[in-house]
Amino acid sequence: MATADPAWQLFEQRFGALRRAKRTETILIFVILVLLFLVSAVWTDFSPSRILEGVPKIGEYFAKLFSIQPSQNSPPIAVLSLPHLLGGVKEPQSIAYWFYRFNVYARLLWQTIQMAILATVLGYCTAFAMSFPAARNLTANRYVGFVTRRLLEFMRTIPQVVLAFILVWPYGIGPLAGVVAIAIHTTGTLGKLFSELNENADLRPVEGVRASGGSWLAQMRYGVVPQMLPGFMSYGLLRFEINVRSSTIIGFVGAGGIGSELKRVIGFNIYEEVSAICILILLIVVVIDLLSERVRHRLIGALG
Amino acid sequence: MSASAAHLLPRKAPAYRTLQVAIGIGAFAYLVYLLWLFDLVRVFTGLPKLWIIVRLMVDWSQFAQWDHAELIRSMIETVAMAFLGTFLAVIIALPLGFLGARNIVPNRVFRFLTRRIFDGCRGLDQFIWALVFVRAVGLGPIAGILAIMVAETGVLSKLFAEAIENIDTKQIDGIRSTGASRIAELRYGVVPQILPVMISQALYSIESNSREATILGLVGAGGIGLRLSERIQINAWDQVAYVIVLILITVALIDTLSRWLRLRLIGASAQ
Predict the structure, then answer these.
(1) The whole model's pTM is what?
(2) Domain harbouring A191, CATH code
């Protein structure tokens, strides 16, 4: 009999002990998670009843979006039908009616994208310049490297919306504060990524340039930049996608772009314009993501 | 010798070279236009004003009179919002991830629809979701929790679905060969393979969401952001600096904690 075998019994015993230990650990983790959940829920006043209170309001949003009220006191009439949706500007709750201010939105969206472009270019340039002293293997001076790394860390940890909010005071309401805020944040994140790329650089070209008497700048320019450029470009484009998203919201604190318009229409409860702007933002973000992904793949394919 | 050999070297076609120069000049001109459009010179003319703010920020002589209890409470509220939002998002994303995976649900139309729903949740920023939910459930942390939940569900569902698509099918075959049910196949064949990915993703989400949650308060969705925006609006720059320092410390603490947890839970191999 296998069960009578002492080796088997030992195995059973140890296996059982291991399983019990594992099970206790799992239960312990589960209990801790549930406790944390309950504590957070109590702290933030989070209860299912509060959520359920809000659900009718979400329904109300869509109800208002797809219905018209002929006069002040008459009940609303649902108008969700294809001919109605495709009706003209004069017809309430048709698609043309939602987008009747399309020219304004288009201008603001274009401004948003231009903000993202400028902020990405500025951030890219400063990050490029700072990534060489920040890289541990390339820096000319250990203390300069340390200070640059801390500076980059500081730039990327402050939330950019907060930064924009603060910058609105010296620079006034308008896109400039947003551009500067996004550019600073971009410098922080790209600088870290670039310096990490630099730390993995092949140092033989650098030694070659140094051996021929090149200065530190020449060593960076001819030894490091040529091998790193495809990586830099790819990260820069990725950051551009993220910056487009950021610049759509940075207007909430008065820093330009479509965000300020969205904040205004949400404040006034203009349902159809809220949906119109949200749809436009979603569209523009998706289109830019797709375009930039294409360019990035081509870039990597062409150079790597 | 070298001078006579130079003409033998392959040269780029002149047309290609001209095109390159033209594109370069065009890009440069566009950049100059953008600099002019956003009036970037004002960055330098505004520096004296910025300097005034910075000087006010470092003056912490009133430190004892600030409302520390309220600030710390809001900070904990922010972290709680991030935790709750991510926790709920993980619970919702788990089944959605299975529904969006090619090897679990072969129906192409159904998968296309679920994937587009994930994209829709992800495409709008958390900040915009927060605005929408402030309208629906009123001011307070619940709007923030729901915003984090919706946006994070989109991100996590997509990542979970991709993790499930990349699993090794041999384990599932093994379970199936013992005559196990479909649920048992998922539980013992799929879940053990994707669990490490999911845990590390969820921890990372809590980290990044506690950063994001600090700004949700700016639109009234609870947490430290509300305190921060109040203090910016009354120009209490010393307290603004203090709140930012509090945020930086909290984020650093959570980063450290989550790195430690990740190492404990899934071992050094996942790093």
Answers:
(1) 0.81
(2) 1.10.3720.10
